[in-house]
Design goal:
316 residues, Jelly Rolls, six-stranded antiparallel sheet, three-stranded antiparallel sheet, 4 helices, 13 strands, 21% strand, globular, binds 2-oxoglutaric acid
Length: 316
């Protein structure tokens, strides 16, 4: 008997889904699997060029939002990320799945250095795994609709050897992990920086498993190898992880952008939060409207990055 929880996520597209015919087939696959990719955003030579500039600018931290080890939200101080995370092709896909009114709420760097372990299997709904507080809360649709999408773009080759993403197709329709469970690993005060290269960046996602015997490796995982400049779009409710970097000298770098419809409250009621052993002061934080309008006004929105450069809005 399959004894994973029977709680179903009935993820459905919203009423204001903006489906362009040329991506309708991809969106069908996304609905079935919980992810879609690889999607080519850049020629490899262009991706390599962006990569070189990201590397150089990563070290200039004068205009950064939070100066800590996590490198979150660098779209506010690195113009290449201001541009990349509002890429029209990304937003075209997001509009089909999240509807026309969309906020970018977070960006992250995922570097896998030679010899480092893969990212542990995980399934995320509201990011409360970090310190127990939900970081995104929908105000319109239920918990089982699409409320958060990640766009993960490779800027170096992402192969089984260098570390590629892995997914369990269809796993977004069921809860295999429950982030609201009590755990000690990785939580405030207990974070161990020496463990960031194990499991889930200092957390142990196994702690959240609903059925401790459920084995993702036996649930049909797929490995998605990608070229520089290609992206995969997924709901974090789809169980995902990555392979270890088994090379001796090839770092894999990917940038993740995370997006929500405007009805979602981001960091509700919080002026700071803790994640992966770091504190994030939200005083300068805001979301970015990448498409449509914000009729809710739940969240602060910034129109410009820290250099005064405007964020691109789809169709504007
Ligand atoms: O890059 C990785 O290894 C993991 C990325 C991930 O889990 C995410 O973007 O949500």
């Amino acid at each position: 008997m399959n004894n994973t929880t029977e709680r179903q996520q009935t993820a459905v597209l919203p009423e204001n889904s903006a489906m362009e015919p040329e991506i309708a087939h991809d969106i069908k696959k996304f609905e079935r699997d919980g992810f879609i990719g690889p999607i080519k955003l850049y020629e490899e030579s262009e991706a390599n060029d962006i990569m070189r500039r990201l590397r150089a600018k990563n070290h200039d931290r004068r205009h950064i939002l939070y100066d800590n080890k996590m490198n979150y939200d660098r779209h506010f101080d690195i113009p290449e990320l201001t541009e990349h995370l509002t890429h029209p092709l990304i937003v075209k896909y997001l509009r089909a799945i999240l509807g026309t009114d969309i906020l970018l709420w977070r960006s992250e760097w995922f570097a896998k250095f030679p010899g480092t372990s893969g990212t542990e299997w995980h399934q995320v709904r509201d990011y409360s795994y970090t310190d127990g507080n939900p970081l995104i809360v929908p105000t319109e649709s239920g918990w089982n609709a699409y409320i958060d999408l990640t766009v993960w773009t490779a800027f170096t080759p992402a192969t089984r050897e260098t570390s590629c993403m892995r997914f369990i197709p269809g796993s977004h329709k069921k809860f295999y992990y429950d982030e609201r469970k009590e755990t000690s690993a990785g939580r405030v005060g207990l974070y161990d920086h020496t463990k960031t290269d194990s499991g889930f960046f200092g957390y142990n996602f196994e702690d959240f498993k609903i059925d401790p015997d459920w084995d993702p490796e036996k649930s049909g995982p797929i490995d998605m190898e990608m070229r520089p400049g290609e992206a995969v779009i997924f709901t974090a409710s789809c169980v995902h992880g990555s392979t270890p970097n088994r090379t001796e000298r090839e770092t894999r770098l990917a940038i993740s952008g995370r997006y929500v419809p405007t009805h979602v409250r981001v960091y509700p009621g919080l002026d700071k939060y803790k994640a992966h052993g770091e504190e994030f002061d939200l005083t300068q934080y805001a979301t970015v409207l990448v498409s449509g309008e914000d009729h809710y006004e739940h969240n602060k929105i910034r129109a410009e990055n820290n250099h005064g450069q405007k964020f691109r809005r789809y169709g504007a």
